[in-house]
Amino acid sequence: MRLRRRTIFIGIGVFVLLLGAAGYAFLHFTLRGQGDDKGLLANLISRALSTPAAQISVGDVSGVLTSDVTVSDVSIADQDGVWLKLDKIRLVWRRAALLAGRLEIDRLDVGHLAVHRKPIPAPVAAGHQQSPQPGQAAQPDEALLPEIPVKVEVKSFALAELALGEPLLGVDARLTATGQAVLGNPAEGLSLNLDARRLDAQGVFATRLDYVPASGRLETSMTLDEAPGGIAVRLLK
């Protein structure tokens, strides 16, 4: 749950940063008259998102001042090199919904995403981890359901291809996926529909989640059908 929550917040942070960078780029292009300088915004985002442990590179950003945004040639590297590459992601969203505290996405199309290996963990600063005192049980620091600052509605999600490297699962794997989601404050309800299929072997996966706050009911279902020695078996060892 911690990784899922962290991924969601990173995604929202990237989106907010993209909006801020768009404003900077708009002023720069207006004052200097260089509206065709797409590389400036990509470089700005790359530098802003990078950390000493993760160097993020963005090749191109187009349509950032519109409701149809495309980001191309994204890579993430650590001290051992590039471990994630994404050729293109397209976001069709409703800008006016932000005024009501909602992020409404009509389409989220992800191209070819390759994850070659796990990233090298960032070093933990001394004093940031505290062990439980004698006789004191460790308390969980994550809620059952993640909370997001704004309500996020993804009406259509499509992933063309996810390529997982052998270091991740012990075997290469290629998948495709589609879905829809409503995320945010659990008090407003949550839903998730995800269908995935392997491209290089037999295997399908489907999950459904529906949380109704009025009744406090959380309904989930999961379907998995794959050949012996598939992804689930390797993950569960």
Overview of this structure, please?
It is a single chain. This protein is an alpha+beta fold and 237 residues long. It is built from 4 helices and 9 strands, in the order H-H-E-E-E-E-E-H-E-E-E-E-H. The protein has helices at residues 2-32, 38-49, 166-169, 231-236, and strands spanning 55-62, 68-78, 81-94, 102-115, 151-164, 173-183, 190-198, 203-212, 217-226. Strands 1-2-3-4-5-6-7-8-9 form a 9-stranded mixed β-sheet. A hairpin with a 4-residue loop joins strand 8 (203-212) and strand 9. Helix 1 packs antiparallel against helix 2. The radius of gyration is 20 Å and the shape is globular.
| Percentage of residues assigned to helices | 10-25%
Q: N- to C-terminal separation?
A: 20 Å
SSE ordering? HHEEEEEHEEEEH
Q: Which stretches of 5+ consecutive residues score pLDDT under 50?
A: 1-37, 140-146
User: What is the strand arrangement across the widest sheet?
Assistant: 1-2-3-4-5-6-7-8-9
Which word captures the global form? globular
| pLDDT averaged over residues | 78
Tally of alpha and pi helices: 4
What integer value in Å does the Rg equal? 20 Å
Largest sheet: 9 strands, mixed
Structural class by SSE content: alpha+beta
Write the topology of this structure.
Blueprint: H1 2-32, H2 38-49, E1 55-62, E2 68-78, E3 81-94, E4 102-115, E5 151-164, H3 166-169, E6 173-183, E7 190-198, E8 203-212, E9 217-226, H4 231-236
Parallel strand pairs: 4-5
Antiparallel strand pairs: 1-2, 2-3, 3-4, 5-6, 6-7, 7-8, 8-9
Helix pairs in contact: 1-2
